[in-house]
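Hey,
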Amino acid sequence: MLERAKWALMFFLLCAGGVFYLFSSNEWVMVEKAMSETAAQEDESLYSLPLETMDGNRVTLGDFQGERLFVFFFTTWCHVCQEQWKEVKEVQGGSSADKIKIIAVNLTKEDRNKSEIENYVKQTEPGEIEVLLDTEGKAQKEFKVMGIPTSFMINEKGQVSERTDGLMSAQKINEKIEAWTKESS
């Protein structure tokens, strides 16, 4: 009887802990919620988010509608973002480059100033990678970007099919692109 009471108490504590965890504002829980809310949704608001080119022209992701996109968010002060740039540039220079459009979005509100961003981009030498500025923080909010780098793969229909918080290797990006290519064949 005592043994049964111990198991019942343990079960209750585990359930209570699980409920507490789900309603927690712990950073990991918030990221998991953001990931599950963002994945595989078709959302016209993603296409209308105001972004800016390095030249100051206004664009939206809708300008790339119908294309497969790899979008990653970065700042100039993020060391892991520098590694993400290396990985993305490797993809851009490889055989998968013609299968996806790569877009780098700077979280401008999180950075020091625009001239620092311009210098960073010049040093990074993005090549064919489109660099856009999220000057108003709306893309950061809509994509629920809580840490950087954060990457998204968006299909031709505007659906977020993949989200990665943290560094995504060139190998993993290429694998995802190849899987996408096979799915649509």
